[in-house]
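Problem: given the chain below (1185 residues), write out its structure.
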Amino acid sequence: MVLESQPNIIAQNNSDRRRQMIQLINAGLAKTEREAKVKESCGEVMDVVLSVKNIISAAIQAVPQAAFAWTGICIALEIFINPIKATKANREGIDYVVKRMKWYWSLSNSLLKDPTNNISKPSGMKGQLENHIVGLYKALLSYQIKSVCAYYRNPGLVFLRDMITLDNWKADLGAIQDAEKRFDTDAQTYTTWKGTSHLEQLVSYAMSEKDQQCLKHLRLTDPRDDKVRIERTKGGLLQDLYRWVLNNADFQQWHDDLQHRLLWIKGDPGKGKTMLLCGIINELDQGNTANARHCNVAYFFCQATDSRINNATAVLRGLIYVLIEQQPCVLPHVRKKYDHTDENLFIDANAWDALSEIFTDILQDPSLRTTYLVIDALDECVEDWSQLLDLIAQQSSRSSRVKWIVSSRNSPHIEEQLEIATANLKVSLELNAESVAAAVNAFILYKVVQDYLRSNAQDTFLWVALVCQALAGPEVKKWNTEEMLRKFPPGLDALYARMKQDISLSYHSDLCKRVLAVAAIVRRPISLQELTTLVEMPNIICDDLESLEEIIRLCGSFLTIRERTIYFVHQSAKDFLLGNAFDKAGNQASQEAFSWIFPSGKEDVNYTIFSRSLNVMSATLRRDIYNLRAPGFPGDKVQVPDPDPLATVQYSCVYWVDHLCDLVSSTNTNWNELLQDNGVVYTFLKTKYLYWLEALSLFQAMPAGVVAIKKLEGLLGGNNQSQLSKLVWDAYRFALSYKSIIEQAPLQTYISALIFAPSGSLIKRNFKVEEPEWIRTKPAVEWDWNACLHTLEGHSGTVSSVAFSPDGQRLASGSWDKTIKIWDPPSGSCLQTLKGHSDTVSSVAFSPDGQRLASGSGDKTIKIWDPASESCLQTLEGHSHTVSSVAFSPDGQRLASGSWDKTIKIWDPASGSCLQTLEGHSHGVVSVAFSPDGQRLASGSGDETIKIWDPASGSCLQTLEGHSHTVSSVAFSPDGQRLASGSGDETIKIWDPPSGSCLQTLEGHSDTVSSVAFSPDGQRLASGSWDKMIKIWDPASGSYLQTLEGHSDTVSSVAFSPDGQRLASGSWDKTIKIWDSASGSCLQTIPTSTIMTDISFDPTNRYLHTNVGRIKIVTETTESQVVLDNSESHNYGLGQDWSWITCNGQNVLWLPPNYRPSSCNVQGRMISIGCASGLVWVIGFSQDI
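Solution.
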C-alpha cells in the first residue's frame, strides 16, 4: 500500500506506473471503505422508505397540509440518496475498470504484436485498431484518475458534489462500455482479416493451373527483377543515396497523413530519381516477408528506349502482377475478364480499357491491404501517358489505403495533369540540391576516388555510374586506375564526347558508327538478330550472338543489352548523339556527334534501313512460313518456332514504310525514283504483299500494316495515274477489308481474302497462283471494290448514333448495348469503349475541339466524357425520360439535349448546370441541332413540327409545320441558311429558317427517315432510313444522287467526315459502315444464327443432311424413341455462327459478313447459300482438307 509519507515520484517504466495506479486505487478504496459502508446502510433504509412512497402519497392526498410536507420530504430523499448511489456506482465501476484494464493490457500485446518485429508506425486496419485501443485506454485511465482524486478529496466536498451529481460515475462507465463494444467489433474484423491474410498465403502456394496461366500471360516484365537489374547496372544501392528524403517534410507528410496520397518526385535527367525510388521502395517494404505482409508495395520502372516498358498498358500489367504476387486474393478480378479472352486481354486494342477497369476493382477491393504504388520515370512512358496520368490523379483521390509515388523530369504537362489530384505533394530535386549533392558524394565515396569524382560529377549520378563502369573494364589495371580516371572529363555531355572520341579512334570505328546511327533513329529498340538486317556487317558474325554482343560493347557505354535487345544506357545518351544535348554547354559536342554518325544526314541511314529491310523481306517472306498448314489455324494459338524465321525481319515488316516516309518528302525529291512504276516498292508489293500480311498477322501487327499502307498512299500524293498508286490503293482496300480475318487466321490471307476479293483487284490478279486448288467452284464476286471502306463490328446491340471527331481522326458510336465505342477509321481498330450508362445510348456528339464527347441515354442522363482518358467528366441529370439527342454549340460552351419528356435543355458542359429548359413541343423531342453561328437551335419532335429557338433567351422563334409524322432528325446546313428535317412520313424537307417556308420536299424513301446530315460544303445531303438505305441528295434541286445499300436493318444515323470524302452510317444490324461518298453501292452485312432450316435423313440412316452440313448420328431404340448425337460433323458444312465453312468440323473458309447465309443447302462438297440481300451463290470443293 502507498503511504502518504512516500515521495510523490511517478515511475518511468510502463509496468511500474501501472502498479502505482493500482496501489493508489486500492489505498483510496480502503480509505473510503468505512464511509462507504455507512452510506450503504443508509441506502438500505432509504430504499425501504422510497418503496412505500407511493402508498403514503395516496393515503395523505385528502390532507393538503400533510401532502405538501410529504412532497418536500420526497425531494430531500431523492437529493440525499444521490451520494449513496454515486458511491455504490463508483466502487462497482472501479472494480470493473481495473479488471478490464488488465484484460486489455494482455489482449493488445497479443492482438497487435507484429511477428516481423517491425517498429514502423502501424497503418491500415491495424493502425485503426490501435487507435481504438488507445482511446479505450484513455477512458479507463480517466475513470481511475478521477476515482483516485475523489478518494483523497475532502469527504464533505465529495458529498456535496455527489448530491448534485457532478461526478456521473454511471455515465462514465457507460461511455467505457460503449467504447468496448466498438473495439470488440473492430477487433473481430481485424482477427478475421488476419486469418484471411494467412489463408491467402496458403492459397498462393496452391494456385490452379488456370491461375498460373493467367499470371504467366499477365507478366510482361517482373518489376522486381527490373529493380534488381537497375540497382546492379547503376553500381549498387547505398542507404546514403536516399536516406535524406525520409526526413523531407513533404515525404513525411505524405507518409503520415491519410489525406495526402500522391507524392511527385521531380528533377532533371541524371539526378538519381530512379535510385531514390529504389531506396524508398526498400523502406516501405521493410518488415514484409514471403509469408507475412503488413502492406503491399507494387512498383514499375518506365524506360523510353524499351518498348516493353514504355507504355501505360505495360505499367498497369506490372503493377497488377506485383499486387497479385503479394496478395493473391485479388487475382479473381483479373480472371473475371481473362476467362473470356485468355491472353488477348493483355495485348489487344482494348487492353488499356480492360486493365484500367481491373486495376480500379483491385484498388477498391475491401480485402486489399494498405498499398503503396510507385511509378518511376513517367516522362519515359511514351504511349498513352496522358491516360495513365489521369488514372493516377483519379485513383489517388479515392482511397486512404492506397498511396502513390511517381517520378519524372520537370514537365509542365505532367504537373498540369497531376494538379487534378487533391492534396498532392512534390519533392523537387533542384530545390533539395544540397541533399542531392550529399547523396552524390556518398555514391562517389562508395565507388572510387573521392576528390576527382566529386569535383567532376556535377551532381549527376549517371556520370559517376558510367565512369565506374568504364574503370571496371579489363583494360584498366589496378596500378593505372587513377591515371585512367583523370582522363574522364567533367559533366555528362563531356563524358559522352570522350566516349565518342574513343570509339572514333578504334579499329572498329566505322562499324560502331553504323550501329549507333541505326540505334538512334529506329522506332523501337531492336534485337541483335534485327541488327544484322539493318546494319551492314561481316557475314561471318551475323549468326554469332556472342560476336554481336561484343560489337555492342565496342560502342563505348552508349548502348547496353538486355535479353538480347539493344537499348541506350539512358535517354540523354540518345539525345546527345541526335544533337539534342540536355546541357546547353554540351550543344557543340552534341552537334559534332550528330555529324560524326550522320555525315550525310539522317537520309542515308533511313535509306539503308529501308533498302535492307525490303531486301531481307523479299528474301525471307513466303507462304505459311510457320508451317501452320490448317487453313483456319487460329492466330492466337500460333507457337513461334525455334529458330524463328521471322526474327530478323520483325522490325522491317512493321517500320519499312516509316523510314521510306522519312526519306521521301515534299522538300527532298532525291529519292523519288523509289516510288516509280516497276521500282523496288512496286516490285515488293506485287510479289510479296500477301506474305507480308501473313507475317504481320503472325506477330500481331496487322493494324500497323494497314496504317503503313495508308501512309504509303499519302506519300504518293494522290497520283492516281501511276501503276504504283493503283496497286497501293488496291492493297489498302484489300488489307482494310480482310484485316479482321487475317488477324484471326493468318492463312485465310490466301483463301477467304483472295476468293472474295473483287475480280478486278490487282492483288487478287497478282497472287492468283496462291488461290486454293481445293475450291473447284468459286462464288461470283463484284468487279471492283464497293463504296463501303470498312465495316466496324464490336457492338452487341443496335448502333443508334455515330459522329466523327472534328479532325476526322476518330469515330464515335453509341449503341443499345449501353456503351460508346471510339474507332480509328483508317485501320478499323476500336480504340476505346466507354461504359457508364445504365440504359441504351441514343445519341453521341463531339465538342468542336474534339476534347469532349457527349452521350444521351435511355437512363435519362447526359454524360460528358474525356475520350483520351475514357473518364466521365460530368453526368447531367434533369430530364424525366430518355435523352434522344445531344448537340454541342459551335463554340463548345453549351450543350443541348432533347428528350422524350417533350423538353430541350441547354447545359453548361463545364459546370454541369442547366442554363435553360425549352418547353413547347406536345410530344417527345427526337432531334436537336445548333445553327453554325450558335444563335439558333432547331428541334424535331413527335408532334410533327420543327421549332427554332433562341438558346440564350429560351424563346421560340419559329414553328415549322408540314410533316405528317414524327420529325426524327434535324440538321442545319454549314452556312446556317437551310434546315433539313427527316420524318416518319418518309420525306425530307428543306426549310428557310428565317421565314419558316419549306423550300424542297425530297421523296424517295419507303419508310421513316431517321437521320439527315449535310456535307461540309453544303452541296450534298445524306439521309438514313428504316428502309435500310442511305440516300445522297442535291438539296438545291431536290434530286437524289446515289442510293447506298448494304445494311440489313434500319439505318439509324449518318454522318459526313469533316473533309466530306467519307460517310459513316450506324444501323440496327449492329454494324457501322464507312462509305466512299463519291461512288458506288455496297453489299449487305448480315448477322448470323444457328437455326437449322433444312433437315433430312441420309439413306443409310447414319447421317442427317442439314443446312450446316452432314452430321453423324448414333441411333439407339428404347421404347420407340430415337436418340440423336450430333456432336460430330463430317465433310463440308457451316460452323456454329455461320461465319465459316467447315470441313470435318475444322474451319477452312471464312465468309465475309455480306456473304453469310440466311439459308443454305449442303450436298456433299457443294454448298448453295442464299443471303438476306437477295444474293445467291454457290461454292464447290474438289477434296476434303
